[in-house]
Amino acid sequence: RDETVECLGELARDLQAVLALVSQAKAEKERLLSVPDSFRCPITQEVMTDPVMVAETGHTYERAAILRWLQTNSTDPKTNVPLQTKQLVPNHGLRATIEDFLNPPIRPIRP
Length: 111
Description:
Blueprint lengths: L1 H32 L17 E4 L5 E3 H10 L15 E3 L1 H11 L9
Antiparallel strand pairs: 1-2, 1-3
């Protein structure tokens, strides 16, 4: 009987841990679903971590995605405008904005 009670206690603790993880995953999913479309790469639809602008058009894409695109294409993927150069410019402002959105500063609670 003591072993059964002890086992049930361990199961209850494990269940609480699993429920906490599920709750965290749901919160993370909700946060990611609330990401503005402008933070997503038009090619991959994923949140950008290394946004770069196509110099000629000003459109921003995830670096890896646009580099893959430009290996076989010479147009802007969003507009299909022919590109004279394949120059990319880091979009530092957008990168910082995305990072701030995804990692908001922790503010102390004032009494």
